[in-house]
Amino acid sequence: MHLRATWFAAADYALNTLILCGFAVIGTVPFEVPLRVLAIAVVFNAVFVAGIVSGFTQRFRDPSMTALQVFAACGINLLALLLAPQIAYMAIVNLFVLLSYGSLHFSQRTFLFAWVALSVVLGIELRMVGAYVDIAATTGGERWFFWAVVTIALGRFLAIHAEVSRLRAGLHERNRELGLMAARMADLASRDELTGLWNRREFMHRLEEERKRIGRRGGRFCVALIDADHFKQVNDRFGHLAGDAVLRELAQVFDRTRRVSDTLARYGGEEFILLLLDVDLEAALPAVERMRGGVQSHDWSRIAPELQVTVSIGVASWRQNEDIGQVINRADAALYDAKAAGRNCVRAAPPERT
After folding, report:
1. Residue 240 and residue 70: Cα distance in Å, rounded?
2. Which contacts qualify for 48-52: CB closer than 8 Å, 24 or more apart?
């Protein structure tokens, strides 16, 4: 991957050398010009390839050494301008193409430095060889090569920006995948591993958000604590694997029998917790009673023969200015009353302070 910029540079050097050779063939420049340019390009490219392949450049922020490669290529083009001022346009056009390589790697400071440095050096060189600078397009061959230089430079320019576009599209797709992965990880972190329900932390967060919302806009909600009756006996008699299966099955029964608008979570161990939105205690009781009845009538023999499971439920309605810990504690007290009453029943906490 880090050699990609080097291969682009090698392709550029090869193209420029071929074009210079063409000018040499038709007599516009001497043959020593493409040979010198080629020799220097090979040395530079070999140094960059060796640095990248050996791992030496891994210590740098940009292991591809894109900036150095761009500046090296610009230097070679400026040398070509000195060696062949009669085709100075080729070197100048190439500078714009080469600087395009920096579009994904250069900082604003680097672009500013490149602009100032190249402007100064180009000004000095034009002063040195200005009398020899001309557009060599007198003969048919020179006109053809002039067209070839511009056309190839345009093609390289577009190829570079096509590469930029490809990389940008790849980055966009990668960011989309990372976003989906992050959302998936966040969802997994909020779920109970065994039952797939929301875990306690996520439920408490949602309950607090609901309390704040209702505190601002007004409204009501209830909290129900649900406990599997005699769950220790299930584990002791049928084994812990059966106990895990019971918890998973309970989650499915609750999910089928709860109201769609309510939030269900595993509270811990064999306890579940339910947030009932926009209901008072009178409306909440039939809703949780339906859930209790769904558990009682469920066929548990698929997990183990003779297995019977029931649940006890305590319900509390939120009181104005009450924090979430207080309403959960009252639901827990109501759950204790349900257990004291013989289990497999629903009990409600007093709706108002006494």
Report:
1. 66
2. 48/6, 48/9, 48/72, 49/3, 49/6, 52/2, 52/3, 52/6
Q: What is the pTM of this model?
A: 0.54
Residue that is written with structure tokens 């090698």 in the block: 10
Return the residue matching tokens 């060696």: 83
Using CA atoms, how far apart are residues 3 and 63, in angstroms rounded to an integer?
Answer: 9
Using one digit for the tens of pLDDT, what is the confidence trace for 235-256?
Answer: 999 999 999 999 999 999 999 9
Structure tokens at 10: 């090698």
Sign of CA dihedral 47, 51, 53, 57: negative
Start-end of H helices in 60-139: 66-83, 88-100, 108-129
- List the structure tokens of 90: 């080729």
CB burial of residue 48 (10 Å; 0-12, 13-18, 19+) = buried
Residues 6 or more apart from 96 whose CB is under 8 A from it? 153, 157
For helices 200-217 and 324-340, angle between their N-to-C axes, nearest 10 degrees: 120
CA 271 to chain centre: 36
Alpha-helical segments (H) within 132-230: 140-189, 200-217
Distance, in Å, from the CA atom of 297 to the CA atom of 299, rounded to the nearest integer, reads 7
Instruction: Tell me which amino acid residue 166 is.
Output: R
Residue-wise pLDDT tens digits, 196-214: 999 999 999 999 998 988 8
Evaluated on CA atoms 72, 76, 82, 85, the torsion sign reads: negative
Map out the domains of the chain with their CATH numbers: 4-182 (no CATH), 200-348 (3.30.70.270)
Rounded Cα distance, 62 and 57, in Å: 8
Question: Residue 274 carries which DSSP code?
Answer: E
